[in-house]
From TrEMBL, chains A, B, C, D:
InterPro entries: FmdA_AmdA (IPR004304), FormamaseFmdA (IPR054833). This is Formamidase. It comes from Halomonas salipaludis. Pfam families: FmdA_AmdA. GO terms for molecular function: hydrolase activity, acting on carbon-nitrogen (but not peptide) bonds, in linear amides. NCBIfam families: FormamaseFmdA (NF045496). Transmembrane segments: none annotated.
Length: 409, 409, 409, 409
């Protein structure tokens, strides 16, 4: 068995573990070193570091401290890695902890981060999912069970100093364009809750003030939340600092394209088994700016779909110009209305679309003025038939249970 | 064999065929009537009605009259269809004409419509694709051959009067927000080149002035350019007028998600074999606003992918807020740079991504401020290995041929 | 459009067409010549040459003259092909004739060929299948519709003189081991009904007496009835004579593994579009004895299966030693009994398993004394749910129609 | 986490564990009881109970005591199960032990069991496979790595007394038809090495003398070695005794159709996570004789194949009558000769075809006198290109390593 080079204790705060960090900064020391060709295991907290609990009360989702996220395991240094190389990472496996066979999904309060449909679901709600081997189901969303397309939401290498500065600069410009907006337009550096791994003292203080937040995906990958970056995939990461510095976290048992609920997928603590190799000078050889990857040879085959279309006319009938975001929101809303006809609440449908292996396709982006997006709902995850027929839908779901909701204080 | 209820003559202008129209309007008379359960064949012009030719000169793409598009076959009336019903359409088959075994792809001049990457490829170019049974290849893009995911780019029912008014109103508001913009923000009604099917006289004149252009996808479906709406799929269309009025055109031999090149997919003339059924009052039963569909049981299996990521920071380094359009553009540009390392020109790579069965996924839309989009490039369409390895890319493509380009006049 | 190098007339007997033959012999002259790289179209009779009709009377199946089959189109000569080469054949497409949108399936009388289950279904029966674009259904087997995995049952190159002698010799030995058996153990040369293409006179007479029957698959491929040799596949055929001499016929709209009903798949007349290339000395380079092939990138996705097991204990409880034939028969019988619970007659179920894209796997061949075979029934071809549940099966099929049967005379 | 209801100790002989048995007999007491709806974990020895070791010496394969196999975990009783019911088993997951990250494959000496190709490989050889997360590779077979289609080779319910008698009777008849044959035609009851679980004293002695050997698959399922009965599949087992009595073992990390090497797949110790339900009177409701199953929604996607054909003419040129066993052997031999052209030894190729997710299809069973079988070799498991081309094969495998061989004593 491969060595577990980063261990965690679910009963202790991640801040006490010096192999964890929650900001991006080139000065964070390597938590461990490996060689090209090595495979090894890294344990990971859930993205919130244990703030959300396996119960029927959504107040933890409402009150979450988002300045703490994401707790990442690493950085792992790879001997010989230099800026300009590609770090080739095989995700050999991902698993859960025996003592933690569950995950959570939720939407934040609009006052605290919101989500893709925060105008429609402005208050904090959550669903809890139990894991049964490779399958999951939720006591809050009856009638579905499916196999997890398990993956890390967040993985990538440390940025260089120059890259970090660019990130901070461009995001500040955006934030400053509407600084009072709720939710905010961007998450800026925030030293108070920064955890900088093994850094301490003045070096830590300085890095904490500069460290980029982990929320957005960026050139290095990071919080891409790509559901297909699953166990078995092979990823080619750009290297920006000596030894690379690969960090990983935010494991998901399953997620739909878009991670629309923001909190987020089926979020979980667990472990990930990786193997690393290098392509020297690979960024230039292959003109790589962002990571590229090959998907896994093994993924759940939920490939009978019912597909919903959306175009970029918003809920108020306003015409937007080739806006895929608006178009996908319409497709999602269309799917939610459809599922409500089978007895689901809107919140249940919304959460399900965030958790299940739903596909979101950019179907048309040139037919002015309407972008067209499609949401692909896998029909085999349901215990009943959700396809349309001449008789109309049967209300298979009783409607006697719903997602817990915690009202804004 | 099913009856061909709408025939065309490729040697005659579509304006001479009264079973063709190029605007949406509820007053267009039915070209033919069928009954629920019937199957029938409809012949279609390519979307430009024959303006583009099988040669090595892109001036036809440069000089195209886009006010003429799209030439649609129909409307086909279905007995008993009423507003509020769902018209269930099985696409039983799609095929080419024996005398027209080719298609075209191109990008318009920025002065005349442009395309997804018009800032990068501002002048008109085209590629011509030959069909060999179910496969296609292009003399302008060496090293690739693939099976076509053949589909109609445009299909849907006639809008009601109220819906048409809403379309015209909301698109005018957008257009008026920047009326000088090139390319324009929207295509407004334009009577001069309108073809209103069997309408004539004053009725035609009035309808031509009101008729919505066919460019954007809308609530009824229309120009969705969804590559998976292919032969074998089953679509549920909203009905807005008596008898439904189903029109179809803009056949594509193959297309990538987004139809990024705008002109467009591999565009072709051909025929489509349809079967229709009704779900009475289906819109209300299933809460349907836009069409929904089930994909075909038969599609080319190009499912070994190399996946490119993009985030919503644009080419100038500017940060956009959760803008999937920008993110997908970055993923596309990343793929183009990658393919250039194998010897392709940028134009060849761009055209290929518009034609091949490329997937575009909305991977993350909540991780502020960056949307993340992914472009899935099928690797089996290439005659050589395009995956990265330690040795770096081999320049399999010689670079001695390229897409014809017609400079702006 | 590729040239049609062999044409047929469905209204004329295949014996009148000198580009057709129904025996294998090296002396049959090439019907047409092509060059490596060429693509071309060949038209084909159904395997019986029109003996079976689109009606509800199985007497044509009962009275079929099996000494006439199979009517093949060819041989097509490829310039430069020499013994020892591999002839690489791309099946670019396969299609039906507009005037012949139907096919047939049947089981012969045990007195005249029988079938896999001839002990259970000893008398002639047939089902007729209508084609609707890429889909088919039968008026004799309600409740199913599926897309065709269209393919040639029979394709291969002419044998050399030495190979032909070996075939005739070894099959005669087998036949002679039980010459009175019904059905016969092998089909031996039979000059009376031989059609030797362009051969005439004494040369024809001699070849007709030696020509191998087309029934069995052999080293050259021939009547392999491999359902996955479908449109889009690429096949590498051994070459035994100068110019190769590729012949093809016995087109199937769809078939299950094993072609258990013998008559056989959904049999049809139609055309096939081929492209040829050569690998010089390929047999030795790759140690090729029998053809090898790559399956198509495009095939119907009926991949939700209900799987039936069978072991090599026969219907009378007798134990056989690792006999896959017996094991597969048990799996087939198990599936038939299962389908009868939904209202199908045994004959309907048997015919369906011969026609639908059923898989037959050799699951275990070493666990003495029982071979284990599995029959994979695709569940999506049914219009109702055939999976088991706690409530038991619903009899969706009324049982008021059945396959026509023609009693032995 | 589900409860582990049967535990094993890899350092102790399975004979010391009373929740293990190696014969089928209705009198074996339940090792544990569960209720319908329960899920639970069962640990399993490898099929030989630890006789084969992770080293480079095949003498353990040569000297294996096959009268001991297979060591099964169970029987697990399900409350309320009665003869005639169907026991519905969900395989929720299967995994390896942290301390045992390897498996073995081998062919027995012809003197001791042999294998599918024992005439070609008459002496004992083995290959050892290391597990790296979901992937495996072998130090004895370079150039391949693939994800495991992990499954139990053996699973089923206890037979009734009557069924047991029938098994013993029919197998004895076969054995007696050639009692001196090597390998034997069947494995008969053998008390000396029988392990009857919790049975002891006289009851054990009597049961041991009657207990059916576990080698062959039978009506109840048992040693089916169906590679697709993998984690995620749902199986419907016939119940013959009160409480069902489900036993399981012979876990495989991966296997090809046919398990041709007999020893067998990639054999391993590990654990299996199951969930059980009942369909009362299900055998009669659905006419079930042998188990049926639905395959998993999650399996490795190795679906680019090179397909080898074989017909039922044996290695000596003798014609067999519709013998799928002979035909599949020819297809396997053809694949081995092909792989040797890339540098593999025959033994390496044979072992690989037993271990990798190879498909074996019954392609034609009616075209007298030749059965046609196909072997589907997945091409993506190789680190190099194994498809044919005009240049001929490159010898990627150096040939400096081979499978250990232990000569017969």
């Amino acid at each position: 068995m491969a060595e577990t080079i980063i261990k965690i204790d679910l009963d202790k705060p991640p801040y006490e573990n010096e192999n964890i960090h929650n900001r991006w900064h080139p000065d964070i020391p390597m938590a461990a070193m490996v060689k090209p060709g090595d495979d090894f295991i890294v344990e990971c907290h859930d993205w919130t570091g244990g703030q959300i609990h396996n119960n029927d009360d959504a107040s933890d989702v409402r009150d979450v401290d988002l300045t703490q996220v994401h707790f990442l395991s690493g950085p792992v240094g790879v001997e010989g890695a230099e800026p300009g190389d590609l770090l080739v990472v095989d995700i050999l496996d991902i698993g859960t902890f025996q003592e933690s066979q569950w995950g959570f999904n939720g939407f934040f309060s609009k006052q605290n981060g919101g989500g893709f449909l925060t105008e429609h679901f402005p208050e904090a709600q959550k669903s809890v999912w139990d894991f049964n081997g490779m399958f999951t189901k939720s006591r809050h969303i009856p009638g579905v069970e499916f196999a997890g397309l398990i993956h890390p939401g967040l993985i990538g290498c440390l940025p260089s100093k120059e890259m970090l500065e660019e990130w901070n600069k461009r995001e500040k410009v955006l934030f400053d364009s509407d600084p009072e907006r709720i939710p905010a337009l961007a998450t800026l550096p925030y030293a108070d809750t920064a955890h900088m791994g093994k850094l301490s003292g003045e070096a830590k203080t300085r890095a904490a003030e500069e460290g980029a937040r982990t929320v957005p995906p960026r050139e290095h990958g990071g919080n891409c939340d790509i559901k297909d970056l699953s166990r078995g995939s092979k990823i080619y990461f750009p290297v920006y600092v000596k030894n690379g510095g690969l960090s990983v976290g935010d494991l998901h048992f399953s997620q739909g394209d878009g991670e629309i609920t923001f909190c987020g997928a089926i979020e979980m603590a667990g472990w990930i088994h990786l193997r690393v190799e290098l392509i020297k000078d690979g960024m230039s050889k292959y003109a790589i700016k962002n990571p590229i990857f090959k998907p896994s040879p093994m993924a759940p085959k939920y490939d009978d779909y019912l597909i919903f279309e959306g175009v970029s006319v918003d809920e108020q009938g306003k015409q937007h110009y080739l806006d895929v975001h608006v178009a996908y929101r319409q497709a999602v809303l269309n799917a939610i209305e459809y599922l409500k006809k089978f007895g689901y609440s809107g919140a249940q449908a919304y959460s399900l679309l965030g958790c299940a292996p739903v596909q979101g396709h950019i179907s048309g982006v040139v037919d002015i003025p309407n972008a067209c997006a499609t949401l692909w709902l896998p029909t085999d995850i349901f215990e009943f038939d959700v396809k349309p027929n001449a008789d109309g839908p049967k209300q298979h779901v009783k409607g006697n249970i719903d997602l817990p909701l915690a009202k804004d204080k």
